[in-house]
Amino acid sequence: MLDIKLIRENPDFVKRSLEKRNENFDIDGILQLDASYRRSLQQQEQLRAQHKKMSKQMSNPSERSPELTLQMRQMGEEISALQEETSKNKSDLENLLLLLPNIPHESVPLGNDASGNIVVRTWGEPKTFAFKPLPHWELGEKLDIIDFQRGVKLSGSRFYALKGWGAHLQRALISFMLDTHVIDHGYQEIYPPFMVKKECMVGSGNLPKFGDNLYHDKEEDYWFVPTAEVPLTNFHRDEILDAECLPINYVAYTTCFRREKMAAGKDTRGIKRGHQFDKVELYKLTNPENSDKELEKLIADAEDICQRLELPYRVVQLCTGDLGFAACKTYDIELWAPGCNEWLEVSSCSNCGDFQARRANVRYRSAANARTQFVHTLNGSGVALPRVFIAILENYQQADGTVVLPEALTPYMKARQS
RNA sequence: GGAGGGAUCGCAUAGUGGUCUAGUGCGGCCGCCUGCUAAGCGGUUACCCCGAGAAAUUGGGGUCGAGGGUUCGAAUCCCUCUCCCUCCGCCA
Question: How far is the CA of A372 from the C1' of B47 (A)?
Answer without folding.
Answer: 10
